[in-house]
Amino acid sequence: MKTILLVDDEPAARYGLRRALEAKYRVVEADSTETARGALTTERPDLVLLDVVLPGQSGLELLRWMRESGSDVPVLMVSALDTAKTAVETLRLGAADYLVKGFELEELRQRVANLLKLATLEKENDSLRRRMATEGQFGQMIGRTAEMRRAFEMADRVAGTDSTVLILGESGTGKDLMAQEIHARSPRAGKAYVAVNCAALPETLIESELFGYERGAFTGAAQQKKGKFELASGGTLFLDEIGDMNAVTQAKVLRALENRTIERLGGTQTIPVDVRVISATHRDLAAEIRAGKFREDLFYRLRVVTIELPALREHKADIPVLAETFLAMHGARMGRAGRLSRESMAALEKYDWPGNVRELKNALERSLVLCRGDAIGVEDLPREVLSGEASPHRNSGGSNENGFSEKDFREAKRKFEVAYLTKQLSDHRWNVSKTAATIGLHRQSLQEKLRELGIRRPGRELPEEE
Question: Is residue 284 part of a domain?
Fold first, then answer.
């Protein structure tokens, strides 16, 4: 039998509510918030029927205390005040429903039954999600090896809290998918999920993206803009590749995490933000700290809970189930079926997958597109899978001129831009105007970039203008 806790200071009101519910439920009474706090611990109710106006502490204060304490017991607020403001406030604090006194008893019974049914379904869903995590599934992520199940179980446990999480793992291991699923399983699930790739933003833009700016803060700031911290307020902010963040921004992020406030660029007003931060990186942050590239105090603030996602080469036993899942997904989208031959599966399991699960997913899509029948043979697999050599590390000269082997992001980016623009210019006989039109840049922007990178046509000081 379900237990309902009635919290009301009027004996007559408690008597009427008890008579309406006691035929179907076990009813416990409390005449104050102090008594109710004790009953929440000793009686473990399935639902709380809570009056808004109580002597001493109000029902709203008790509701706030319950939610801050981590209690997820559904609360049906009851009030003699028929105002939208009171109703909105109770729901904002976490009440499941709101009733105005003078209600019909049948309406009360129906509301109580609906809330208890919903709470039961939520508990069943939580139980199912936990079982799936232990069996090798976490949202869109799949992995039945012990390494992956450990990561899934830890992520599932931390999801229901508000703790800051640091996800470690190589590129392509699914750090972003794990962050999304942690948010989806958290109390903030109905609020915003905002992701920022710190490696993709130039140093000159990352601060304004994270913290926003006021009108006139810099040239081109024609109007006020809210940053990602503000946009994620109430929800979750995912800082991907945080190891690539510059030192100045690291200091501001640390201050935001510690004080739960930010200031827009060019502004003087302190703005409170309520965000849960999940961060991720493929870098060895301990090594970055020793090299003076990452703040130690920020590292300890971010890693309240650390989850490590293993590289695919470290849990190859998951390759068959991953391959089967990806083929079914690609096949459904393409309207065709596909299966791997025994030789193809052996080749997949032998390869080390430097691009991890993302590389496996893309390789299977390519193979399904190219195979002529339902069976994917070894001839349909990418050459690097068969040779055991990862294609991103190969180039025509066998050197590091394209930057893929660089550990430092900025140097890798510079080398890639040099290699890319040199090839595009060569393909267009070093005609700047035609090259700019092809790659989507203005001619002057391309010329500035060429000067910045020191690129020039062999034997000439500058590339051809026309």
Answer: yes
